[in-house]
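Q: Can I see a sequence and its folded structure?
A: Here is a first one.
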Amino acid sequence: MYTPEFAADPYLIYAQMREQHPTLAPVYLDPDAPATLVIGYQTAVEILHDPVRFPADPRVWQQSIPAHCPVLPMLEHRPNALRNSGPVHARYRAANTSALDQVRLPGLQAMVQRIAIPLINDICEAGQADLLTQYAQPVAFKALNAILGCPPEIGRRVAQGMAAIFDGVNAEAGNVMLSEALSELVDLKRRHLGMDVTTGLLTHPAQLNQPELIHQLVTLYGAGIEPEQNFIANTLRLILSDERYSGDALRGSLSVRDALDELLRVDPPLANYCVSYPPRPEEVDGIVLPAHQPVVISMAACNNDPAVMSDEQAGNRAHLTWSLGPHACPAQPLAYLVAQVAIEEIVDALPEMELAVPAGHLTYRPGPFHRSLTGLPVRFPPSPRLHLT
């Protein structure tokens, strides 16, 4: 799953897996990291709802993994909600959900508009752009920094470290950069409390200590930069390549929200994750899963499982992209809103925008977890700059 061939056409690989392994397939996340990939929808639902047999704690597993293994920073134990189970998980999750619940959606909508319009103005007169690097990435980055109360310079180092972790290139160094930058952010917010999620974590009754605070932020940045920029860029790719959506000012029959829902269902931006580590051998679907080996949910493969696929496409939200059970994503409304506002702003501003290359010529970054374009080139008639209202 770490090869360029997998990145080029993962859905072909999932189909090949399914021919031999209908619901559970043996895979390698890295040459040093064998795992089981869950590709059956109902099997995934059962595992996600069973944290006793399938807890999220990787500490025994990682003892046998080389320190240089590039997937280790994505999977290793951290004192956060993602990598713990039981009461420890509940404590961390309560702090996260409380802090996230303080974000007001109307204010977030206005903030994303203020972020989007200058970015559109940077490209609108040129007649061409790379919507990934010039729009989706900075929108996701700036929006998350604002939500977390993070200054741009610290946020820049966070983004660099997180990208290295997702790509598995210099991941160990990226992990160090990420931790150092987030430690600076926590120290800054201790001195200057604000109306932001980091302050919410700092002041929560759980009384998180410094390492715990840093690692809650690792989770939030991990979910809020890479998957969110892919959510925006990949949905734009869908809109610009599918006649049901494309056309002048989205004259297609379906809305931006329909496109977001379809993208989450058929081609999720975080394709393979939701990892658990059974503490003892577990038999599932007639297969014995080894103890302490990663069990990875393929949201992409499960969402496209022929056993559950429906002919009804528009508005279908019966997918696993947000996960299920005790580790379901608590930031869904925020992620939806940032992506929807960002996409609506640019398609309204540049209604004649089209892909600069055929959709089939677009390429994706290698990596076992994400579904991330290397670029999204578009062209459009040069347009006048917008004005903030």
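Q: Show me another, different protein.
A: A second, unrelated one:
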Amino acid sequence: MSEHCGENAAIEVEIWDAVRLGRSGFGAVLAVGGGSARPPLVAHLRLAGDPSLPSIGLVGKGIAFDSGGLNLKRDAGEMSWMKSDMAAAATVAAAIRLAADARGVGGGPTVEAILPLCDNAVSGTSARPGDVVRHPGGETTEIVDTDCEGRLVLADGLSWLRAVGHDALIDVGTLTDGGAGFRRTGVWSNDEEFVARVVAAGERVADPAWILPLPYGEDEALESRVADLRNAPLDRPDTARHAAAYLARFARGAAWAHLDIGGTAYLEFPIAGLGEGPSGAGALALAELLAGADTASRR
């Protein structure tokens, strides 16, 4: 199904069903969403721009509810706000809409987004620890923790966008509380110039983030005997740096930034002038970047 986004005809939107996802190799999205009575979907968004500017591909985690899967969440307080686990998909969609409204026709970079949309539910068809999923392009992941599902669906999107050939990639997820707690989004990257642009865009619109280093020597914690890698370590606690190290593998040679809005997207209590509930973290920063307001280098 293809249509335009609301009142802005510049944004092309397609909804991919499970059949299309299977043909396109989105094995992780199908596995994560496989335990729900509601089939998984992907929203595909595209905003055409200036072909002389480097293009940007984005992925936003859209888990409509996260029970933890078979590795069920044990914290009732955390479970109560897992409806917010789709915040990253909402952030990316909002950023693209804001950027389209702000820039002129054809201005700014070409933008393409993959928004995996599904429940991480518990049933007889749920993904199991030990399952292996295949991503677009053929790379495989061993699922060792079904509650680390966000990075799995982001890996599908990154793999697909990388194959398209975008110059830069951004993934956004509510994965952990990594970053600066409730105040700043944590950002990991493989490209100093690109991540500096992302953070600077956020500073201009009061949507702050800070850069955290990719871990050194953590790759061995994600090694698998039956797949290219596994989605979490088994010999140490899983942290934001492991999620970043995992996702970095799927960016390959493209400039890439990973935004973990797990601590900033949904506030359990009022803080820093923001009320309890969804904050919209990351939307203004990404909109500023996608609108082409910075001095992005041309090809």
